[in-house]
Each structure stands twice: as structure tokens, then as C-alpha cells.
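Standup notes
- DV: blocked on the single-chain target, sequence here:
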Amino acid sequence: MEPARNVGRAFFPLDEQLGLRRWAVTPRIEGTLVRLASWMPYEPARELVEDLLGVRVSKATARRLTLATGQAALAVCEQEEQQLQQTPPQAPEGAEKQTMSGDGAMVYLVGGEWVEVKTLSIGQVTRNKQGDISCEQLSYCSRLCDASRFAQATLVETHRRGLERASEVCAVQDGAEWLQGLVDYHRADAIRILDFAHAAEYVSQIGQAVQGAGGHLPAHWLDGLLHRLKHQGPARVLQHLSYLAARFQSPTIEEKLAYLHKREEHMQYPIYQAAGWPIGSGSVESANKLVVEARLKGAGMRWARHNVNPMLLLRNAVCNRRWKEAWAAAQAYQGGVRTQFRQAASQQRLRKASFLLALWSVRLTRLSQPPAFEPPVPARKPPSPRRLDTGYSWRKPFLRRPPSSAQPTEEVSAKK
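- DV (later): unblocked, structure below
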């Protein structure tokens, strides 16, 4: 018996109801595998799924399922972003006092290129029982894009946290220019605070440059200067640094001092602490390690550029503890894409069948009609044979008699 022919790709309604797709795994196994692959590399995630659930999948399948889910989650997030830009609804009510911090971390791409992944962290500012200022309920948004695009991409998370409805917002970050644009996009009235550790680093570099130029500084010079900066403000600190810059002239000292002078307004640390604001950007710096570097910066890892943002979407979902919402949205989006694909294929088959039906209808119509009657055409009479003239000789068909006009010439010659 001959083997049956392959019927090709088809759709079974029960598979859609059960959530079964062409990956040959159940939704629970797929969700567990993708979630584990968002925390760890693909190979350990695959091994863990095999040990826990007893299901064998390949590393390529784990990678394919994870990136497909990340791309679906990214598409859902971009749709929400467009809706917020077109017709923004009222933001939900969030914490009254919030903080936002932005920073970047480097990721290695295929081809040897290092790129910066930008991250925004949002938190609620509170005081603990000891009276210390702390940031709670942190959430993150990370993307690989330029500064202007990143400000738009973070719109979904800031809207969800109710940042625009908060009564007070502070922005603790370093002095990068793109961070100022990020704050202007979301909350232009936010209190801008230069990260204390960042300011301390610039003060330390000025001290090192002074010692390199031959200056002598006390052993506890840096500690005393930073204590004064934290508890008394930047006025006397900048005055002292200006004195050192005038005495030990150096391009490095002038550059670092100009940076601090430009951000003097953002270094009023005694005022910020009295108002209950944090003066350090540790939340976003820890986000760089937790969200980005823990998964995308492992030993020997190199990423294709188009795979970075899908993985970042999954990292944001697991680190924000919103995995169930992100997974459900990604599954719904993928189901909608499959439905559109089936409908498009069905319409194409319908058009093809309609064309063939119309063609056969025309042929059947022509075959069912009797042939049209055509009157017989009268036969033509054969042409009568042409009579030969008198100059033709039957005996010698290839010789002809001379024309009659030649006879007078012979008579003239005879008379002569």
C-alpha cells in the first residue's frame, strides 16, 4: 500500500482551545521555560525544565520560544505607548511622593560592538522606623535606543505608576544631558538631585589631580570635604576647590570644577535630606546589575541587536513581579497574529476557489450550448483553361514563331 500524501499545514480548533501551538509543548511548559530563560541562560533553563517537568526540549527551542514571547511583549508595549500618545487616559493614582532615576549599562553585541542599554527606575519615597529615607516598590523599564526614543518608551511604566499624578517627584541621577531631557519629558517640575556618589567622585578626581601637580593634601582631606558637602552644602566646598584650581592649574582640575559649578543647584544635599528626599541613585545602579547585567552580560555572551529589547521586556516583567500580566498579554497577541494569518490564508484560498469556479462555469456554459448553424458555402467552379495564342508551337513548345511585325522586314529584304 502506498503511503498517504502529506496534507500540509492545517488548523485544528481544539488546539486553539487547549492553547497548543506548533512547538509541541503545553502552555504551562512553555511559560515555565520562558520564565526560567528570562532569569538564566537557555541551556540551564532547558535542563531545569527537564528535571522539574520531565520534558525534553532543545536549547534552540528554548531560545526560539523565549525571543518570540519577548517580541510579542514588546509589540504589546509599543501599542500601549501609541495609545497613550494619541489619547492619553487619566493615570491611575499612585504614591504621593515618588523618585525617578535613569542610568545606562553597556552590553556586548555580535560583531564586537558595545552599546548602552538605558534603564529608568521608579520608586516610592518613604521613611522607615528608624527615620531613614528609603525607596520602596521599585519598578524598572529598560531599552536599547536613543535618548528621545527612550523617553517615549518609558511612558507606559510612568503612566502605570501614576508618576504624573504624584504630588512630589525627585530625580536623583548623574549629570548626563540625556537624563535632563528624560526628566523634562515626564516631570519638568521634578526636584533634580545630583547623585552624591557621583559628586564625590569628581571631588576625589580633583584631589588626585592636585597631588599629581605637586600639591600636598591632608590624609582626611576627602572625608572632611565630603562631610561638609553633605551636611553644609556646596558653597564652601566649591570655594575651596576653586582655590586649589587657581594654585595648581591643570586642565583636568578646571574641567571637573566646571562640571560641579554647573550643577551647584543640584547639590543642595542638606535641604534635600531635610525634605525627606534620597541623595543617592543606588536604585538605578542596582537596576543595571539586576535587570541588564545579570542576564545580558554573562561570560561569553554576545547579543544580536534585534534580540536585546525582547529580552529586556521579559527582564522587566520578572523583576517588576508582573510576569503573569506580561505573559497573558504576549499570549493574547500571539493568538491574534495566528488568527489573522489563518484568516488571510482562508481569504486567499477563497479567492483562488472563486476564480476556478468562475473559470469552470464559463467552460461548462460553452459546452452546454449547441453549436451555431452556419450555411454551406457554395463550391467554386474551377477556372477554365487559358487558350494559347497563335504563336505557340505544339511541336517545339520552347520555340516561338517570330511576331507578325517581322514579316514586312523580310519582304523588304527580298525586294532588294
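- Follow-up: The first strand starts at residue 97 and ends at 108.
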